[in-house]
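Need residues for this backbone.
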């Protein structure tokens, strides 16, 4: 039995049309196992196999990653290789998903041509990324680690409070209610936090709060606060 036959490929996909395209693209290569977002234990039980399972996750299925703890759990599977599918990816999105555990990105228009090659690539413990996208992410990473190397983002006390609530997947409305401030005030502080960190999405902000063991909590060394 060759490695292709041993390899388990899981597809988390709600859209039946995209699911059909993926099945056709994988025909003769592997038969994907269709799962729902709640089927995580089925994959966790296979992670000790010689061939790490490959998970294909549609960005539409992921929804808002910052608020969907179930899909974040999929990304944190330590051994499984994860490929994210979408119409397109911004640098912020790709950067955030890489931090959360993704190993490759593919546009829908590339599936029929490249999905098998992408699976082979991530299975060899490599990333599947376009050269141009890799360059964008490396530049983004320079800015990100440059800020961390300085040891602080100089967040105010209010911004630090908001950051901790973003890490708990709260919406702007929920954050406003929790802190007894307006949604406009929450948006104002988020804008300032984006400027200070050099990132542009809630997902990327949340990634800054994640420790190596996957906990979403504030690091006082990275985010020292000052009272304003």
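Answer:
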């Amino acid at each position: 039995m060759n490695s292709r036959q041993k390899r388990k490929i899981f597809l988390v996909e709600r859209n039946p049309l995209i699911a059909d395209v993926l099945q056709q693209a994988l025909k003769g290569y592997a038969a994907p196992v269709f799962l729902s977002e709640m089927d995580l234990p089925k994959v966790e039980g296979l992670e000790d196999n010689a061939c790490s399972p490959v998970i294909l996750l549609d960005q539409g299925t992921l929804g808002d990653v910052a608020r969907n703890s179930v899909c974040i759990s999929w990304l944190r599977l330590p051994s499984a290789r994860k490929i994210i599918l979408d119409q397109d990816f911004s640098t912020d999105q790709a950067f955030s998903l890489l931090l959360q555990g993704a190993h490759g990105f593919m546009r829908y228009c590339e599936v029929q041509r490249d999905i098998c090659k992408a699976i082979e690539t991530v299975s060899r413990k490599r990333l599947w990324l376009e050269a141009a996208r890799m360059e964008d992410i490396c530049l983004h990473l320079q800015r990100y680690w440059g800020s961390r190397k300085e040891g602080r983002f100089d967040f105010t006390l209010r911004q630090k409070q908001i950051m901790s609530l973003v890490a708990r997947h709260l919406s702007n409305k929920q954050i406003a209610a929790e802190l007894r401030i307006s949604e406009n005030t929450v948006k104002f502080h988020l804008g300032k936090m984006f400027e200070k960190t050099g990132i542009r999405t809630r997902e990327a902000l949340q990634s800054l709060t994640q420790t190596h063991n996957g906990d979403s909590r504030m690091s006082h060394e990275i985010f020292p606060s000052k009272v304003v």
